[in-house]
Each structure stands twice: as structure tokens, then as C-alpha cells.
Amino acid sequence: MERLKSAVPADIRRAVGEGTARDLPSTTSLLLDFFDGVPLFHQVISELTDPELALCRKDKGRAVELKGRGNACFSKREFEQALGFYSQALRYVPISSDGNYEILVPTLYVNRASTMHKLGLLKQCLRDCNRAISVSSNYAKAWYRRGMVNASLKKYSSAIHDLKVALSMEVTSSGKSNIEQELKLILLKHRNVNEVGRSSSDCQDAGLPHTAEPHKVVLECASTPNKGRGMMSLNVISPASLIHVEDPLAAIIIKSCRETHCHYCFSEAPADVVFCPLCTIPVYCSKECQEQAVGDISWNQDTSLEFNSHHLVDNAKLGLTSTRCKTSNSKQIAEHMHECGGAHWAAVLPADIVLAGRVMAQYIDKRLLTGKSSAISGPNLDLVHHYDIDSPTSKLESHIYAIVLLLCLQKYYRSDLSWREESLSQLVLLICQIKVNSIAIVHMKSVDGGQELTESKGYSTASDAVMCSVEQIRVAQAIYMSGSLFNHSCRPNVHTYFHSRTLFLRSTEYIESGSPLELSYGPQAGEMDLLERQKSLQENYKFSCRCSSCSELNLSDLVIDSFCCPRSFCLGAVSESTCYRSEENFVHVSLNGSAVCKLSLPDVSKVDEDMEKVGKLFFRNDDADLKIDPGYCMSCRSQLDLSSVVATLDRAASKINRFKELIVIDDVSEVLITNALQSLEQIKKLRHPYSKALAQAEDKIAEAFAKVGDQEQARKHCEASIKILEKLYHPKHIAIAHELIKLISIKLCMGDKAGAAATVTRAEAIFLLYYGPDVQRVLPYIDALKIAVSG
């Protein structure tokens, strides 16, 4: 795209950059007419849409080669490598009515199943056997392998049935003899054995049913002077109440998760991934997710997935059918279908552009299904776009991507429909709407010790010394039409979480009738200071926040990145920011030279006792006079040499980071530990006691000590980090609960099950406030922790 951008002449750049949404019909036509005469543009479109040039084509030769490499690894008992090769072979194998192609698919499934059987991945092995049988029901090896894995799962009746079917199909005498011997052994084991039931679904996110909760909250979209339209409740809402549940209009996986997560439900991809039958781009955790994304594919002799140069994909010929969305009474168009056909533009263009393409394709497909195939303009989403205040560079990029995307869609739909002149203008606005309104889908993941904790239900020896932690993984982005109407607050009263691709909103505090319902778009008070929050929201969402935390100066904003006063026993903070300017009872804050907000000074009695002491030092006089000058204590006005302090802190932080890195590779010494602790002491002397940098340093030291097995030191520093974060957030904030998970794992390693149990109870109480009955589904490791502390 950079090549196209640089080819645009200055006069067109100016017209696009200075134009508004009203000018889009003329500016899009102007740019399209210019590109029509540029050979480079036609080359780019050809590279993106020509099946002969596509990088995502199926390739039988490549599949056969990968299968051979997998066989070689299997023979050498390199099972993990073999698993990878068999999976990649399945990715590239084309599906055709030709018999040789058909037998390759079930063969690969059985080979991968055998590999997973060797690796102990029994459920995944069983699923691959089922897939092989569904493709070729008379394939003896598939029945044999399924019988063997059923025996490993102690499903002896099923194993006996499968092996008898395999025996009836086997044609070689040696094969029959082998099956007969296995049958005899299993018949002996079958006596008086309780068998395990089968799961009804292969989808990785289909385990626990969602807890049905009555929706008693009545919501209303209303306008406010400061924030425009937003959602509010017409009745009183109790803490932990489920407020809203919604499936997305469209969703797309982010590029960094393409190989690791299912492209439909966004769960972590299992070992037995399923691939798109039409291209090599997406992976799915199950056949169910594949069918939701691509459509229901018929595996019969009349089904052909070969491409036609006159029409990239013939839906009728393929036997594809649209499937239903998880939301009742709503239809889901197969979202990936228009991205196949041999073209690879969906793998090359940015995720938000591909998401715009999915919204557009859904709009087109729905019109085609209802017989409205003429005069396509584009979806008119009732969402803000902020096009007029976009930068000239952003406007030009939106124009170029809209033109490219429209031509890619036209290449797929061909003569099925006609396009209005305003289609391009609508697509530019759609891209802008997605940039402003799309919501990041995040899943919770237990890292470091989390996997061991889930599997072993706890730690029993010093060698198990790891510190379990939890992090949010951004896996996808999506458009939620109603969810987009909730405004942002840096101290939200609504918590957002996801199961699969479904959005859940839950209250985190008591909310009065008529009060706004606000969630966080990312930045929160306590996590970032005011300036960072404003900068992030301005860059990503084009607005200056006017929430309560941004209209009244928070004490956390003053201390989060501040330094200690050079005078001993003074809790005043020293800021290095030049963006604060105090005047009478207000503090003016500026960003990049322009005013951001005019803040009123807070009532310091509304914070906890320790923070109140700090606040009273800042606001010493009755007139609430506050002086914020870089390098000077806000309380006693003592001066600090900022350049020297910053240099010292950088060196100290570097030593702590180095300590943590060497711990990972088991290269640690007493000298290294001493240096790290001395660096921490330096940070304590120079940073304010409630600064986030100090909390992070304590956390890193705790993690390092946990890894070397000194759990008492790990506990001490972990608790110190949590104490600081409680001042920056509040004791019942979800960030505190995630930190408590670390403390629980440390106490378990110490053998302090009573202390760990008390901390689990505290963490679970916070999680229940944010997730309600969905805690077990969203955070499955909580149950593992409860079992560990009670064992």
C-alpha cells in the first residue's frame, strides 16, 4: 500500500486531506480515476485477487511432500515434528471428486491421529478418526485407530465395535491377525469396567453451558452534553448484574493469532486443527467452527472445490449453506466465504480492512438472499466515524483501502450485482466507523505456572516453584452494534468480557436509575496517568475524555509516575511533567501544546487513609492551592535533580530486568541477587511509595525469587507490589485479583495452604463481582486453585 500512497500526486493528496465526509463522492472518484491509469495499481489488484498468483492456494504436491516428511519423523519417533507436518499437509491438500485426492485426506487424518495417540492426545486423536471415517467410511485403518484410542479412553464397547468393523474391512491377512489380537485383549478388559461418555461437541469453547441469568436491566440510549449519546439504565442495578449480551455483527482474528487460535470462536487452537477446505489461510478448532465460518460442505462424489476462472466460487456447485449464528433467531452468513476462491487479499490487508470487507459482504449477501441484487451502495451503520477530524494521511489511507477492498469484492461477486456511485464513499466511512467502534476481543490466559497448576492441582515440591500469573490476550476485533453505544470512563461501572466471540457486560458497583453505564476502552485510572489516558484515547478514538476521573484530579495521577521528595519523611510527590499548570482551584492540563482539560481539585477525604495523608500534603491550605512544577515537591517545594534521578533509576531498572532474564536461563548467583536487591532499594529511595514503577520492580523481584525457589522472599515482594496497586486502583479492582493469583501460587509452593485458601477466597470474591456466575467459564483455573488449597 505504501507504493500506491507514494504514487498519488500532491493535488489529489491535498483534495483528500482537506475534504470532509460530504466531499467523499468527489474525492473517491478523483482518486479512482487517477489509479485507473496507473499500471502499478492494476498490478497490485492482480496480485491480491488473481488465483494464479495467490499464496494461499491448495497444492496437492506440497501436501504429498509434507506427508512424506511426517512419515519420516514418525518412523524416527519424532512425534511432535510429525504432528506438525501432517497438520500442514492437511492445510494444503485440495479436495476433489478424484479418488486419489479423496484417499489422501482420510490417510492424513489417520496418520495425525496415530501421532497424537503416541503423544497421549487421546481426545484429539478420536476426533481425527471421526473425521477420517466421515470422509471415507470404508477406510479400515480409520476404524482400527478409533478402536485403539477408544480402548485407551476405557470406552471398551465402542472399541470392540470399531475393531470388528475394521476387521470386516481389512483385506490383508497380517492386518486381520493384528486386529484379532487387539480384540482379544480388549474383550478381557471389558469385563466389569465402567465406561466414560462421549462429548457431544468438538468445539474448544463448547465445554460449560452459559449460566442463564434473567435480564432485568432496562437500558436506554440517551444523549448527554459532554459525551453525546450513550447507554443508561432505567432502573437500579446491583453489583455483578448481567447488563448486556451480544454476538458481533462481524469479527476477525488479529494477525498475531492466526496460527495459534481458532478463526471463528477464537479459542486456542488444539493439536487437531481443522483447515478451510477452500484456501490455506484460516485454522479452526473444530468442524463446527469451520462450518460456521465457511458453510456446510457436502463430502460426496458430486462435490468439487476446484475454481472456475469465470466465477471464483460457485456456491450452488459446492453445496454450501449459510449457518445460524449462536444468537437465537438470527442468521449468520458464512463470514469467510468471500475471502476464498484462490485470492489472498484477506491475508495481506490489515485486519480492520478485512473486517470492513466482512461487514460489506454480509450486507451484500443478505440483499442477494432477498432478491435485492441491484444498486449496491453499502451498509449504513448508525455509528460515529470521525472522518472530518482524521489526519490527511489517515484519510488518504482510508481512500486507498476502500478502493482496493471494493475491487476485491467486485472480483468475487462478479456480475451478481451492480454498484452505486456512492458505494466507495460508504466504504470509506465504514472503514472509519470500524477503526473508531471496533472492540478488541480479549481472552484470559494463565501463564508460567498456570498450566502446571491446572494439570497437577497444585505444587508439592520446590522444583515446582513457579509463579502463576494471568494476562489478557487480544485475539480478535469485532463490531458490536449495541455494545458500541456504551461510552468510556477511566473508572468504569461496567466490566467487559467475552466467551468465544460473544460480548458480556456486567455491572461492578451499585448504579442508580438514570445513571450512565460506562465501560473502559482500554485506559483506566490507576493503570495510566491522566496524560497517558488522554493521549491513548485521542489517538485511537479521536476524543478527549470528560469522565469523572478526567474532570477531577486523581491522587493516583499525581503519584503514579512521580518521584520521592528529597526531604526525608515528606510524602509529597515530585513530577517531571511540564503539562500541568495550577491556577486557583483548578489545574490546567495540556497535551502536545493544546489544552486537554481544566480539572477541579478533589475531595481528599474520599480516598483511603494512607492516600488521604498524601493528599493533605498536596493540598495544604484551605484554598486548596496546588503547585505542580517539574522537579519540585508538590508539598514542601524542595527541588530534585531530575536528570540525575532518572539516570539512576534507568540503571536500577536495567539491573532488575537483567536479573529476571538470567533467572529464566538458570544463570543466577549470589552477586546477581544482591545487585538486584540493591537496585530495588535505589528505586524505593527515589520513586514515590505509591508509584507504579516501584510496584513493577517489586513484582519482577518476586517472580525471580519464585523461580529460584526462595518463596518467602517472593511472597514478601509480591505483597509489597499488591499493596501499592491497591492505592493506585482500589482493593476490589480486578487488577488486584489477577495479582492475588500470583500470591496464591507462591503460598502453595511454601506449603501455606491456609494462607493460600484465604487469598483464593479474596480473589474469587473480586472475580465474582466482575464475572458473576461466568467465573468458572472465563477463568477455569480458579477451580484448580480451590482444589489445590483444599487438598
From TrEMBL:
InterPro entries per the UniProt record, alphabetical: SET_dom (IPR001214), SET_dom_sf (IPR046341), TPR-like_helical_dom_sf (IPR011990), TPR_rpt (IPR019734)
Residues annotated as domain SET: 217-522
Record-given protein name: SET domain-containing protein
Organismal lineage: Eukaryota, Viridiplantae, Streptophyta, Embryophyta, Tracheophyta
Pfam families per record: SET
